[in-house]
Amino acid sequence: MTLTVYGSSLSPFVRKVRVVLAEKGLPYEHQQINPFAPPDWFVEISPLKRIPVLRDSDEAEPNTIPDSSVICDYLENKYPEPPLYPRAPIARAHAVWFEEYADTQMMQSIGPGLFFERIVKRLMGRDCDESVVAVTLGEKLPVIFDYLENAVREREFLVGDTLSIADIAIACMLVNFEHARERLDRNRWPELVRYSAAIHARPSFQSSIAEERRFLERQRAA
Ligand SMILES: N[C@@H](CCC(=O)N[C@@H](CS)C(=O)NCC(=O)O)C(=O)O
């Protein structure tokens, strides 16, 4: 095995890399790293102390790459089939835009405002502040979901007619929304519900999601 992914399965950024690897049919090892208590050696390969990091042992050292977007771009260049970034410049720009939108705008709301409160704090033995969650659900996320509802209207994929990094990045964030015990309102965002269910049903997502749910269930039972 030449590829190793470092990072917790529950991170949407780690999931993005794992889904890309699965869609490209690339075998890899996965090493869990808690970004809030990383081992000393991890800081050497992740200057920002963030997950994920990819190691490609096929390459001479230094052979580690931090940041999910940089990793996905690397995987696309080294293993171009099937393409997950559109070839046409304008379509590629749109796909990278949605990836950026997921990794920044969606992450800022779903991360600290929901997943951290409901799940990470519990793992740390702390209480959820439901007033923070209420602002996220009531004020921040509806604007995002309205935007995505229009973007996926009558479309199977966000850009073009095949899966791209746009779908992977957006759907990875929606997994964290669901892990935090929330569901999209199908009356207000019916197109997003349909789209999200179809992307999450792909084997590349299902293998990660099933493993993550087992972990979360074990934590709840503990
Ligand atoms: N832009 C980075 C973001 C990575 C990131 O923020 N990961 C979070 C976990 S979801 C992390 O490592 N947080 C620990 C910290 O910021 O100290 C990427 O795409 O990989």
Explain this structure.
The protein is α+β, with helices and mostly antiparallel strands and 222 residues long. A four-stranded mixed beta sheet has the order 2-1-3-4, covered by helices on one side. It is 59% helix and 6% strand. The chain has helices spanning 12-23, 40-45, 68-78, 89-123, 130-151, 165-179, 190-200, 203-221; strands at residues 3-6, 29-31, 53-56, 64-66. α1 (12-23) links the parallel β1 and β2. The chain starts with a strand and ends with a helix. Residues 11, 13, 35, 49-52, 67-69, 103 line the site of glutathione.
What gross morphology would you assign? globular
Order of helices and strands: EHEHEEHHHHHH
Which ligands occur here?
glutathione
User: Termini separation (Å)?
Assistant: 33 Å
As laid out across the biggest beta sheet, the strand order is 2-1-3-4
Total strand count, please?
A: 4
Give the percentage of residues in beta strands. 5-15%
Uncertain spans? none
From the alpha-carbon coordinates, what is the Rg to the nearest angstrom? 17 Å
Largest sheet: 4 strands, mixed
Number of helices: 8
**Helix proportion:** 55-70%
Mean pLDDT: 97
Structural class: alpha+beta
